[in-house]
Amino acid sequence: xxxxxxxxxxxxxxxxxxxxxxxxxxxxxxxxxxxxxxxxxxxxxxxxxxxxxxxxxxxxxxxxxxxxxxxxxxxxxxxxxxxxxxxxxxxxxxxxxxxxxxxxxxxxxxxxxxxxxxxxxxxxxxxxxxxxxxxxxxxxxxxxxxxxxxxxxxxxxxxxxx
Length: 162
Description:
Blueprint: H1 18-26, H2 28-39, E1 48-50, H3 53-59, H4 65-77, E2 81-84, E3 89-92, H5 95-99, H6 106-121, H7 127-134, H8 147-161
Antiparallel strand pairs: 1-3, 2-3
Helix pairs in contact: 1-2, 2-4
């Protein structure tokens, strides 16, 4: 079982990003959803994760499901994120830049690699896009993990939860 983040960074420079400036110009509901995508309980440090719209609606109850779907499309159109409506995965495109140090430690690189390996195993949408954009920055292996690697990850997770 993977650990949930204790906190998420909302970096002050977020407000100067071109995509966030566009989000702010759209209005308060778009800003609320954009910040939610960076800070909900399902996030990970690379910003690629499963997020059903029903969960968003439960937690942002002032938005209807139709408004959420529309806003996800708008956030996608301005380049803030990508959302797979069929599989309900999101990629907050620049989240890794804000959650992981600019000069990541070996532990951070290993953490990124572990998340990437799990998402590859699940055949998650956007993982190849993430690797293409950030693979070199975080020293992400371009190869899928072997069965032996997956067993080792499983054992480590199992031992950490005992």
